[in-house]
Amino acid sequence: MTTSKIASMHDAIAGLVRDGDAVAIEGFTHLICFAAGHEIIRQRKRDLTLCRLTPDVIYDQMIAAGVARKLVFSWLGNPGVGGLGAIRRRVEGAIPEQPLELEEYSHFGMVARYTDSDLSLVEMYRLAHTVLEVDPGRVSVCVVTGSTGMAGGASVVFPNVGQARALARDVRHDARVDHGC
Using CB atoms within 10 A as the burial measure, which of 12, 152, 156, 160 is most buried? Predict the structure, then answer.
């Protein structure tokens, strides 16, 4: 019998987010999970590292509420999301007792951080550009084995990196694999 992974937002945050954790609440416009950010504030979590490609209003609210000690991002200051005044005040030292550490990346670098891969940035760059050049009409199924497990409270897939690298070495420019999967 399997147990349900469905939980209330209160229980999910209480069970998965600990003081000092790194938290990523991604999404675009209407798909940003404000409920998760607001629940983190309600539960008074502290010393979090907030990670997001483009920090927005919910992150500004979380920083204003004092939940974060660090912000990891790739683009700060998107005019479409407003002034992000709380982030600015913390960065400029207007609240000396609450400094905010920043760690900035390009979008590509931030995605690389999210993948937590042992691939080098050069390998990831080449992989990304190879994928962009693939004609989907010429692709047949090729599965890289792996396993599932838990990482930081999330269910994730751990691919067989050795198999993927060996396969990548055999891939031709047209994305065909001469030696099969």
Answer: 12
